[in-house]
Design goal:
382 residues, mainly alpha, Serine Threonine Protein Phosphatase 5, Tetratricopeptide repeat, 23 helices, 80% helix, elongated, Sel1_AlgK, identical protein binding, TPR-like_helical_dom_sf, TPR-4
């Protein structure tokens, strides 16, 4: 046991090679915890085969963490039965991570009832992420009252995800003060989507400089933490309040954030990035982003791509994109199609697109479409 303690001390100091030597000595003497610890050292060094050998040795002697590690190893390989066997061995050895992992395994197989049982077992034993997962499962089936105490238990134990989920729960009930408190707790612990929610609430409730600066702070945290929506909203905020690139410094910061969101598939960011490119006459880049947005279902992307193509002399292709936009509910696209039809003398089709444009709006489009429809009607009856 002295060798095990010395190995643990050396590992905490970062002297892993020397720690491994002492763990090996203790493991060869039959100390299961040393064999388990050696397995984790070998795994971290990339020696999975060596790790598996020592974990098996430790697990056979009743070491729960080693059995759980073997379960995870087999789960990654897709060997579910072996994973389940070792997770069960971990549970029998008193490792609550085994219960949690059995729940995850069951949930992944669609066995919700079994997943709930294992989540409960781990949660009652104090596993905070199991408590959070149990609450999510309960919430998904409509039991918000049952979910709340488990979210609270997990959050109080330090689960950042549970703090965020409590924010969602309270926001859904209209309890904004409580929601903000939990979002803030999660955001301060680094949760990107919680930071986004705080920013959204600030921008909704106030328009002063102080609120805007604080919202920008939270949006930066969200964006830098990987929130795609956070990156988009940060870009919108920076663009709206006049942030611009210095001469010779490349694109403005807001454009860089649009690009990050666009590259992650955010359609509105793709459209905005296309508009930025079009504004500096970079037609190729603008067309690329409009097309990407349009093909992903953005009606604004389809409309703007149509405008770009029409300016470049490709009116037939522009009409195809305007049709797609109009069929998705874009009033200006419908008006463009009406104008095209009327120019080529197809008065009936022009009137039909006028009616559609009037239905879709906005008000300025409705007014123009009504005037055009009246003119077309007069032509038809002339």
């Amino acid at each position: 046991r002295a060798a095990l303690r010395l190995g643990a001390l050396l590992e905490r100091r970062g002297e892993t090679a020397e720690a491994g030597r002492w763990y090996l000595e203790a493991a060869e003497a039959g100390e299961a915890r040393a064999a388990s610890a050696l397995g984790f050292l070998l795994r971290d060094s990339g020696d999975e085969a060596g790790a598996e050998t020592w974990w098996r040795s430790a697990a056979r002697d009743g070491d729960g963490p080693a059995a759980n590690a073997l379960g995870a190893l087999h789960a990654r390989r897709g060997e579910r039965q072996e994973a389940q066997r070792w997770y069960r061995a971990a549970v029998e050895a008193g490792d609550i991570n085994g219960s949690f992992n059995l729940a995850l395994l069951s949930a992944g197989q669609g066995r919700t009832a079994q997943a709930e049982q294992w989540y409960r077992r781990a949660a009652y034993a104090g596993h905070r992420e199991a408590a959070n997962a149990l609450a999510v499962l309960l919430l998904q089936r409509g039991d918000a009252d049952g979910a709340e105490p488990w979210f609270s238990k997990a959050a109080e134990a330090g689960s950042v995800d549970a703090s965020f989920n409590l924010g969602i729960l309270y926001a859904g009930r209209g309890q904004e003060e409580a929601a903000t408190r939990w979002y803030r707790r999660a955001a301060e612990a680094g949760h990107a989507e919680a930071a986004l929610q705080l920013a959204v609430e600030l921008l909704r409730s106030g328009t002063g400089d102080a609120e805007r600066r604080l919202a920008e702070k939270w949006l930066r945290q969200a964006a830098e933490g990987g929130s795609v929506e956070g990156a988009f909203r940060l870009a919108v905020l920076l663009e709206r309040y006049g942030e611009a690139a210095e001469q010779g410094e490349g694109p403005a910061e807001y454009e860089r954030w649009y690009e990050r969101a666009a590259e992650a598939g955010h359609r509105r960011a793709q459209v905005r990035l296309g508009m930025c490119a079009a504004g500096r006459d970079d037609v190729v880049t603008a067309a690329r982003w409009y097309r990407e947005a349009a093909e992903a279902g953005s009606r604004n992307g389809a409309f703007n791509l149509g405008l770009l193509l029409a300016r470049e002399g490709s009116e037939p292709e522009a009409a195809l994109w305007w049709r797609r936009a109009a069929e998705a509910g874009h009033g200006r696209a419908a008006l463009r199609l009406a104008l095209l039809a009327s120019r080529r003398g197809d008065l009936a089709e022009g009137g039909s697109w006028c009616t559609r444009a009037m239905e879709l709006g906005p008000a300025e489009v409705t007014e123009r479409a009504a005037r055009l429809r009246d003119a077309l009607a007069q032509e038809l009856t002339a």
